[in-house]
Amino acid sequence: MxxxxxxxxxxxxxxxxxxxxxxxxxxxxxxxxxxxxGGRLIDQIHASYREILERRDLDLKIFAIANSSHLLLDKExxxxxxxxxxIAQKVGYTLQDVLTYAQENEFDNLIAIDNTAxxxxxxxxxxxxxxxxSLVSSxxxxxxxxxxxxxxxxxxxxxxxxEYLYETNVGAGLPLVDTIKLLHLxxxxxxxxxxxxxxxxxxxxxxxxxxxxxxSEVLQDAINKGYTEPDAREDLCGNDVGRKLLILARxxxxxxxxxxxxxxxxxxxQLRQGTKEDFLLQLKDFDVPFxxxxxxxxxxxxxxxxGDLRGDLSKNDGAILEVKLVSVPRNSMLGxxxxxxxxxxxxxxxxxxxPIVIQGAGAGAEVTARGVFGDVLRLSNxxx
Length: 384
Ligand SMILES: NC(=O)C1=CN([C@@H]2O[C@H](COP(=O)(O)OP(=O)(O)OC[C@H]3O[C@@H](n4cnc5c(N)ncnc54)[C@H](OP(=O)(O)O)[C@@H]3O)[C@@H](O)[C@H]2O)C=CC1
Ligand SMILES: N[C@@H](CC=O)C(=O)O
Fold this sequence. Notes:
One of its GO terms (biological process) is lysine biosynthetic process via diaminopimelate. The chain has helices at residues 3-10, 19-23, 36-56, 82-87, 95-104, 125-130, 147-159, 177-185, 199-210, 215-224, 233-236, 239-251, 276-280, 287-295, 365-382; strands at 25-32, 58-66, 71-73, 110-114, 133-137, 164-165, 190-196, 262-263, 301-311, 319-329, 341-348, 356-361.
């Protein structure tokens, strides 16, 4: 119960109630990962803080900010100076430090946000939920490791009456996951989802197909713009698009594992091993093979890297998941894509041959952070 109310019940004659404060709901947020997306998210929350407080009576307090080595805690909410403040913290922390801090300060309305790309970090989801946190994630790993993890997490969420939102897992800030979820829940039979799922590879092939720039130059540009995964090989080997396909398949309650996806890996064999740093020094190895792929197309065609979920989607194990490079007419829907736009064509029984099309920026820190922020607000509205 609100502490002011408790005080009022104990001392009914004392006028303690601040009506403004009673109206306000405080949300306690812990943000893990402060790179491109996480950093922008914190800035966006700070920029909108006052307006959200005044117009929606929500007090968004970021009480914890963490990267892989430093943790910043502040029960009043970390300030706009957080970038300097976090590096001034001692190196090394554990998740328990965050859980203990939240517990000792009796925070409720807790949200933990995973803006890492870390495989290990998702192991924190269960302990977070058991300690009262709802989850928001731009990290796709939690939804794309084994089905056992996927199902157990949902059981734990349901047992503890917590939620997990991850709209940015597919299509960055585009309203894709929620649309698919609602169509499916309402009984609409989705028969195929196809398109350019990767914002970074969209940017890469849109620019490479049109201009005279070398593949390696455009790739470096996409990396510099923050469109790629922290390790760009995750995009180029097809894993990132594969994960997005799998996330959508699982929204349709299909029982697929990552190993079911047929993926065309775009990375030349000699660049597949070694460190990320080695890889970044050898981007020129992409130039000849991709020059040939571009040159050997039919006239008026362009390259696009697509994801395709099709088959008998009414059966748990009936789906075909495919990720591949294709050459399409420049004047087709896929061929006309610009910038870092993704495009998703959603085919279903009611919509027949005219799919629902969702298109827009599919990568970038600004739009992704905005999508994560949207999930935070959605959750905040549901919390007490
Ligand atoms: N960029 C985009 O357009 C989109 C990105 N996403 C997803 O957003 C996520 C973040 O991407 P992006 O911001 O570009 O990545 P960055 O590499 O810029 O940032 C990653 C952050 O995660 C931190 N981190 C890594 N491991 C841990 C850990 N175990 N605990 C706490 N923090 C950790 C890193 O800290 P440190 O610096 O100490 O290593 C860094 O602050 C990814 O999962 C990506 O797939 C989703 C949609 C679009
Ligand atoms: N690397 C991803 C970023 C968002 O998920 C992409 O290129 O789409």
